[in-house]
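Long-time lurker, first post. I've been practising inverse folding by hand and with some scripts of my own, and I keep getting stuck on stretches where the structure tokens seem ambiguous. Below is the full token string for one chain I'm working on. Before anyone asks, I'm not after the true native sequence, just a reasonable design that respects the backbone. If someone could post their per-position residues I'd love to compare against what I wrote down in my notebook.
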């Protein structure tokens, strides 16, 4: 089966996030008040062929650990959204 997945990668809590800090400092100057604790990350969308959703998630967890993230400072959240091509 083919699945569509989204991988959200964020820095672990306690790791400095200079991009998030820059965004947070800029927001009030642009008229956006009351926003705090901004953390920036990246989102990766992909399709994967696997026997089932659990197998797809397990394979993507390995991809994250070995390639997409630095496990020392980053964590990944994997979401299997839908079967590709399904309506």
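-- Answer (accepted) --
I ran through it position by position. Result:
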């Amino acid at each position: 089966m083919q699945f569509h997945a989204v991988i959200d990668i964020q820095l672990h809590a306690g790791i400095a996030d200079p991009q998030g800090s820059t965004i947070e400092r800029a927001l009030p100057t642009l008229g956006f008040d009351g926003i705090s604790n901004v953390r920036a990350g990246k989102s990766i969308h992909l399709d994967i062929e696997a026997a089932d959703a659990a197998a797809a998630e397990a394979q993507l967890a390995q991809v994250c650990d070995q390639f997409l993230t630095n496990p020392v400072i980053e964590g990944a959240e994997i979401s299997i959204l839908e079967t590709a091509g399904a309506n």
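A couple of notes from the structure itself: The mean pLDDT is 94. The two ends are 15 Å apart (CA to CA). Happy to go over any region you disagree with.
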